[in-house]
Write a structure and sequence with these properties.
three-stranded antiparallel sheet; disordered C terminus; alpha+beta; 9% strand
């Protein structure tokens, strides 16, 4: 049985005694100590001034659940492994900073050798010679050592302003001795429920997630998840795509036959190190299939245009795990991918919804999975009412649609390479034809932004284009030059051009909305031809 997190406050020096006795331990999954010297000084200043430094999240267990970190990666002492004990889930950097500073000894990491200048009332590192004031300074480590503290008191008392400095020394000692740290403790040893409680309460404001727990429960002397995640990121770097740690782990889990859910990932603790290592080695080869699909079929070269993790997982399951790459399947996956973007069908969906899509991807592609059918739910008017916003699914699909249509420059008439704008994470290559004042003069209310879909064209950033260009004149010039092919590539047909010539902005936007919708409909409901990509 596991109880809800129990908050309490504990004296800082009591926490130190617990660390020294092995009652608080750093799990081996935690990253190494990474704080900078400045951060340690800021922490000490906060404690000295009695400012809050945040809660410490502990997991109390009565038996071994996680491996313990070596003292080579933390300032905690090497003490026998005894139970019961508490794992530090959040607060490792803060506790390591405080414990290491107050227990600094010769030979330890110099980052913990901190002094306090009683006269200037500042903390500084012993290596910082620019403000080194030895005569009025004491090592922070002396505060916990009665003998060393007496030696420092005797030395300080001999100074001309010794009485004032001794008062500051005693006040500093009292500030640390009286400081209280909020502790939130989870009790029990069921990993799955610990994760669930943390996700639901998150009372400490930390960002611990399933990946952190994965690091904990899979770590052993033969397998370090941090190491293999670093390897995975390095191996896919050349592909030009980036993935979150959690997405990589979910793909590895799919290779091992587990669902991409928290429970599924946590079940990997029962797998051998050899199985996990093998899956991580296989991952770069398998994910390349998905990256090739995105680049070749959708012209996508940046994960910013793949708004939902579920899209990656479905493609990975179908193309990489089950190796289904026949033309009909690839075409169906392409139509579904477009539909998920245009419909924003995975927005805000819980994990179990995504798991269902991954497990039943064939059913989904056939249109028999409610809410995820590969059909366009938007109408032409919807295109006129939506704005281009970086990071949004519909905007990503809109941008990819221009790449797929091989949009041509309104200045040169040449095809704008997809790599020129689909490899960037922003949408700066897309420009407004009319600005807000233009639209307002014609009675068109667009609200806070003129970047509604039918008012957007694609520019080539290498041509020094920008918001100062009058895109209406470029459209008219292309029409007068007989370059209807250029205009069509930007979803501007002859009817729309005549509306522009007649200065009928509303009609122009109406016609262009229909052209955009027609093409989106063809991508989702008609599907691509395999020959288009060969």
């Amino acid at each position: 049985m596991i109880s809800a997190p129990q908050p309490s406050v504990v004296h800082l020096f009591t926490v130190f005694r617990q660390i020294g006795a092995g009652e608080l331990r750093i799990p081996a999954f935690q990253r190494e100590f990474v704080w900078k010297p400045r951060q340690i000084i800021e922490l000490l200043n906060s404690v000295r001034e009695q400012y809050p430094i945040g809660s410490i999240l502990l997991w109390s267990v009565d038996r071994k659940v996680l491996e313990i970190a070596s003292n080579r990666v933390t300032s905690f002492p090497e003490v026998p492994e005894l139970y019961p004990t508490s794992y530090v889930l959040d607060g490792m950097q803060r506790l390591s900073s405080l414990y290491g500073t107050f227990h600094f000894k010769d030979g330890a990491d110099e980052i913990f050798d901190v002094r306090y200048d009683l006269r200037a009332k500042i903390f500084y590192h012993a290596t910082d010679r620019s403000i080194y004031a030895e005569e009025s300074s004491i090592p922070i480590s002396s505060i916990l050592s009665p003998r060393h503290l007496l030696e420092q008191q005797a030395r300080i008392a001999s100074l001309p302003d010794g009485d004032e400095l001794l008062d500051e020394m005693l006040a500093t000692q009292a500030a640390f001795q009286d400081y209280m740290i909020p502790i939130v403790k989870i009790t029990g040893a069921e990993v799955e429920r610990v994760v669930g409680i943390f996700e639901r309460t998150n009372s400490t404001g930390t960002r611990l997630d399933t990946v952190d727990f994965m690091r904990a429960i899979t770590w052993n002397q033969n397998f370090d998840l941090n190491h293999f995640l670093d390897q995975a990121h390095s191996s896919i770097e050349d592909y030009g795509f980036e993935l979150f740690d959690e997405t990589i782990i979910k793909c590895v889990g799919l290779l091992l036959g587990v669902d991409p859910s928290d429970d599924g990932l946590l079940s990997l603790r029962s797998r051998s190190a050899a199985d996990l290592i093998s899956a991580f080695h296989e991952f770069p080869i398998k994910i390349k299939v998905v990256f090739d699909f995105l680049r070749n079929w959708l012209k996508i070269e940046n994960m910013a245009y793949v708004p939902y993790e579920g899209q990656i997982l479905v493609l990975f399951k179908a193309l990489a795990v089950e190796n289904e790459r026949d033309p009909d399947t690839v075409g169906a996956l392409t139509r579904w991918f477009w539909a998920a973007g245009f419909n924003e069908s995975l927005r805000g969906k819980p994990d179990h919804y995504v798991v269902k899509a991954v497990d039943n991807w064939r059913t989904m592609l056939s249109g028999r999975l409610r809410g995820l059918e590969p059909r366009l739910r938007l109408n032409a008017q919807d295109f006129q009412g939506r704005r281009l916003i970086t990071g949004k699914a519909l905007s990503g699909a809109f941008a990819a649609m221009f790449a797929h249509h091989k949009a041509k420059s309104l200045i040169t008439g040449e095809v704008i390479p997809a790599s020129a704008f689909m490899s960037a994470s922003d949408l700066t290559s897309f420009q407004s034809i009319f600005d807000r004042s233009d639209l307002a003069r014609h009675g068109y209310d667009v609200g806070p932004s003129a970047r509604i879909f039918p008012n957007i064209i694609l520019s080539n950033s290498s041509e020094e284009t920008g918001a100062g260009h009058d895109w209406r004149q470029y459209i008219i010039r292309m029409f007068e030059d007989g370059r209807e092919d250029v205009l069509a590539s930007q979803f501007i047909n002859e009817q729309a051009t005549h509306c522009l010539l007649d200065d009928n902005v509303q009609a122009f936007l109406d016609v262009r909305s229909q052209s955009l919708w027609d093409y989106a409909h063809s991508l989702v409901d008609d599907g691509p031809s395999l020959m288009e990509y060969n």
